[in-house]
Write a structure and sequence with these properties.
eight-stranded antiparallel β-sheet, GDE_N_bis, single chain, Beta-galactosidase, Chain A, domain 5, Glycosyltransferase, alpha+beta, four-stranded antiparallel β-sheet
């Protein structure tokens, strides 16, 4: 029997990040030469081992905690040293920090013993410079030989990358068998109640990296929050720390900052992820949106190239230093355009940033790219000319599915059968409708032609969607997940329908029905919104896209529900998301299991999920916006206040939101009454009339045939 090559698990590992550098180690602080543990830099593992020992014994792990946004402190015990008796008297603290292009560790040996303590502290190292795709697939790697020269110094070099370790006061052994497993060692001689501090560090030289750590502090505002539900405060604080660590810039363009998708697999530019994350972050300022828009505009497609999926006006999917070939026949070129939705998301981010106050002098240089993006939608997004946006893998070795649910088995009928491409995804039609309307608004506002053409396009698309997508489901009418090659509705019930809310594609009655579907136990009975309902044959709680819960997906749909006035459904998802946050120490992963809440009392980890991950962390900001209910239209001179906070979620008071560059505060009391301060004088506050009593959610039992 052939043994499977399995993707390594990482759900129990402890990560630290300052992109493009990150580390993953075990709960005790060790970095072991196994699985996905290591120090990574821009798509390469630059250290595969860092194991600490005291007298050739591993300290016993006791606890750990964050040490700032880019650090973690581990505490262990050396119970064989110090005073006899049950109380440990020698502890080992390991402070790990990631810095731009490097890492430092401070090892503190602390004794409260009444006797002297003598020991030898060692750190055994290894470096394989393995590409991230080899690590991701569980491929075998071999450690490289280290070179020595100056005292306390080790160097590895391959594939244009040079890794240097320096250790003050350490003896280095890298001879013989230790050439591939070099060891740093320090003698420690402590008086009673003494302590010793040892240090070592790593630096990376990687001139071929396509992404770099941007200089300076984050441009977005650091919002401060007081809330009755302290989970929301803790989630926001941890998420903002993680987002700080995920900032990236392209090599050669450090001023334009975007968010790398996630640790460890996707710490680079991803069109869809970076755009969604920037859109979620708009309540804290428009600088991140502007940087993301400019970076992707520079790489906007200019020609038809089936080898990369490029087309004129199309927005990039992902950027790597070399071909990305993680196995199963998937081989992606370094600049890959295999995404059906990023182009529309680019248009929608530009529009929303403008509504939040992106200055005209930053919008105007992007308008030719807006024209090009809309041109792609008109000329390249609808290959068969039926008026709907579809995709198919033109490479033969690219992504079979090119929406955000991009795994090969993501698009299934209710009976579990896979849909055959080309695929017409439901939410993509919503994004296209929204992009057409938003693009028209921008064209009108800046005196460019074409606005009426795109409004007419949106109206036609809504009619075609209504005729083709609505099917009878177990809870009444529902939008299908997709249309397959033969234009048959793929009739599974999925979270995708939540992305239609607010795009303008649906009527008010249709939105109300979608809200009722989203509130069913079949979709919302876990800790958030399941990607596929429990009634569908393809459902599995640990399927990547057919039953798991994705943090960003839940946050987006929650925000859409809140903005549209479907308060009860939004509150249910908010409670699930906050419950999950508590279980994951407020660092929400990319995704987690879709089991019923009653099964474990906490969500099951998805074992290969990125954590931290950009759009998962940015989901905390979107939840904050929904709670505060702040919806500006700076060009229109208005700000709408419609908070989700109030009797159920509790009171909130947030400072340092940003509208038109001005710091803004919102307070919502326990009755749901909002107050806003700091708005620029030209903006008028609008408070919508109370939403009529909502019709109850459908029963959990399917509608009788």
């Amino acid at each position: 029997m052939t043994e499977r090559q399995l993707q390594p698990l990482l759900h129990e590992l402890v990560g630290v990040v300052l992109a493009p550098t990150s580390t993953l180690g075990d709960a005790a602080g060790q970095i072991r030469p196994t699985g996905v543990q290591g120090v990574f830099h821009a798509d390469a593992r630059v250290l595969s081992r860092a194991e600490l020992r005291v007298d050739d014994r591993e300290p016993e792990g006791l606890t750990r905690g964050p040490a700032g946004p880019h650090g973690v402190r581990f505490v262990g015990l050396a119970r064989w040293l110090g005073d006899p008796g049950p109380d440990p008297t020698v502890r080992v603290e390991r402070l790990r920090r990631v810095s731009p292009g490097g890492l430092t560790e401070e090892l503190r040996i602390v004794s409260t013993a009444s006797v002297p303590v003598r020991a030898t502290v060692t750190v055994e190292l290894g470096c394989d410079l393995a590409p991230i795709e080899v690590v991701k697939t569980g491929g075998a790697t071999e450690p490289l030989e280290a070179k020595t020269g100056q005292p306390g110094r080790l160097v590895w070099s391959a594939a244009g990358i040079t890794v240097t370790v320096t250790a003050e006061g350490a003896t280095v052994d890298a001879t013989g068998v230790r050439a591939t497993a070099p060891r740093l060692s320090w003698p420690v001689d402590l008086p009673p109640r003494g302590e010793s501090v040892l240090r070592w560090g790593l630096t990376v030289e990687d001139p071929r990296a396509v992404v770099v750590c941007p200089p300076g502090e984050p441009a977005w505002s650091r919002a401060t929050l007081r809330a009755d539900d302290r989970r929301l405060v803790r989630l926001l604080d941890r998420s903002l720390d993680d987002l700080r660590g995920l900032r990236l810039a392209e090599t050669g363009a450090p001023a334009d900052v975007f968010l790398g998708a996630g640790v460890p697999w996707f710490l680079t530019l991803f069109g869809r992820d970076s755009l969604w994350a920037a859109r979620m972050m708009l309540p804290l300022g428009t600088d991140l949106a502007a940087g993301t828009l400019r970076v992707l505009a520079r790489r906007q497609g200019t020609r038809v190239d089936p080898a990369s999926g490029e087309a004129p006006g199309k927005i990039l999917h992902e950027l790597r230093r070399h071909e990305f070939a993680p196995g199963d026949g998937l081989r992606l070129p370094p600049a890959y355009y295999g995404t059906v939705d990023a182009t529309m998301l680019w248009v929608n981010l530009l529009h929303d940033a403008w509504r939040w106050g992106l200055p005209a002098d930053q919008v105007e240089p992007l308008l030719p790219h807006l024209d090009a993006a809309l041109g792609w939608l008109a000329e390249h997004a609808d290959a068969d000319g039926d008026g709907l946006v579809e995709y198919i893998d033109t490479l033969g070795h690219g992504l079979a599915n090119q929406g955000w649910k991009d795994s090969g088995d993501a698009v299934r009928f209710r009976d579990g059968t896979l849909a055959a491409p080309p695929i017409v995804l439901a939410e993509v039609q919503g994004y296209a409708h929204e992009a057409a309307v938003n693009g028209a608004a921008l064209l009108d506002a800046f005196g460019r032609p074409g606005g009426e053409r795109w409004r007419e396009y949106a109206a036609r698309l809504a009619g075609r969607f209504r005729a083709a997508f609505w099917v009878d489901g177990p809870y009444g009418p529902q939008p299908a997940l997709a249309l397959d090659r033969d234009k048959r509705p793929v009739d599974s019930l999925t979270s995708n329908i939540g992305h239609l809310l607010g795009t303008g594609l649906l009527t008010a009655d249709e939105e109300a029905q979608v809200a009722r579907l989203l509130a069913t136990e079949a979709l919302s009975g876990g800790y958030g919104l399941r990607t596929m309902s429990t009634d569908d044959a393809g459902f599995s709680p640990l399927s990547y896209h057919c039953g798991s819960v994705w943090t960003h997906d839940t946050a987006i749909v929650l925000a859409n529900l809140a903005r549209a006035g479907f308060r009860d459904a939004a509150l249910g998802l908010a409670d699930g998301l906050l419950g999950a946050a508590e279980s994951f120490d407020y660092r929400l992963p990319e995704l987690y299991g879709g089991d019923d809440r009653e099964l474990l009392g906490r969500p099951a980890p998805y074992p290969a999920a990125c954590r931290p991950q950009a759009w998962a962390a940015a989901g905390a900001v979107l939840l904050l916006q929904a709670a505060a209910g702040l919806y500006p239209d700076v060009p229109g001179g208005t700000v709408r206040l419609a908070p989700l906070a109030g009797p159920e979620l509790g009171a909130v008071a947030v400072e340092r939101l940003t509208v038109a560059g001005a710091p803004v505060g919102v307070t919502v009391d326990r009755t749901g009454h909002p107050t806003v301060t700091g708005l620029p004088a030209h903006l008028t506050v609008e408070t919508p009339a109370p939403v009529p009593a909502q019709r109850p959610a459908p029963t959990d039992r399917p509608v009788p045939a």
